[in-house]
Amino acid sequence: MKPNTKIKALSACVTGPLHKMRKMPCQDYCKYSSKGENFVGIISDGAGSAKYGRIGAKILCETLVDLLQNVPFAEIKPAIINSIEIAREKLLFHRLNSAKNSRGIMSFAATLVGVVYHNDKGVFFHIGDGAALAFMGGSFSKYVISKPENGAFSCETYFYTMDDWRDCIRFTFFDKAHTIMMMSDGVTGFSFLPNFIDIEPRFLLPIDRFLSKESTKKRASRALYNTLSTEKAQKLNPDDKTFLWIKL
């Protein structure tokens, strides 16, 4: 097993002003690993309406990173499905799920944006809002997007805790990326133009330039956190904000 030592990754999670005002912790959760055969990165946004949304997000991230690190890439799609099922089973028997049934796991509702990358091949897997980008070629003009998906209303999205979650999961395969960026819903408005076809280069490209040049991880992480925490960013979107940057 050879770790992906050449991959550089950084993330930041920022509590939105709405949750700060209510003295609630950030409901987003992010975890990634390059220790196995595959690089795995997961962002999950716990639903604000769910009592244990952050717990659902944490369990999903930790379970998927744990189980997908060494899966052969040719088997990755069924492995992702199986890993989500295992996360759901953990919620089914969680001590805070007093109902101990599938209805009870909706108290842990959370979205999913994930990536597995191995030897120039990658796949995004996605339930609900948030977004992911894979940049190919020598510049940032060519990219693949895994877009947010909402329901009939803009405030309605999908969660891995839903009974029909298999109907909502989306897979996007891509090759030979040099940079991956993933984000929760609180950051998508800064990262894309309103059509969700074109990126917002004035936000994304300066982030990439700085993180690519900064050799001190602590300083780079602090800069990313500060970017998501600016007064302007908090006013434009009061939701929690998570951003994961991966240089391949």
Going by helix content, strand content and strand pairing, the class is alpha+beta
CATH class: Alpha Beta
Overall mean pLDDT stands at 93
Give the SSE order as H and E letters: EHEEHHEEEEHEEHHHHE
Identify low-pLDDT runs: none
Summary of the model, kept short:
With 248 residues, the chain is α+β, with helices and mostly antiparallel strands. The chain has 8 helices and 10 strands. 33% of the residues lie in helices and 26% in strands.
What are the main properties of this structure?
single chain, 248 residues, alpha+beta, Phosphatase 2c, domain 1, five-stranded antiparallel β-sheet, globular
Structure commentary:
- This protein is of the alpha+beta class and 248 residues long.
- The chain has one domain (8-247): Phosphatase 2c, domain 1 (4-Layer Sandwich).
- The protein has eight helices and ten strands.
- A five-stranded antiparallel beta sheet has the order 1-10-9-6-7. The protein has a five-stranded antiparallel beta sheet with strand order 2-3-4-5-8.
- The longest helix has 17 residues, at 76-92.
- It is globular.
Write the layout of secondary structure elements.
Blueprint lengths: L7 E7 L2 H5 L6 E6 L5 E7 L7 H16 L7 H17 L19 E7 L2 E7 L3 E6 L5 E5 L18 H4 L1 E6 L1 E7 L1 H7 L9 H13 L3 H13 L1 H6 L4 E7 L1
Antiparallel strand pairs: 1-10, 2-3, 3-4, 4-5, 5-8, 6-7, 6-9, 9-10
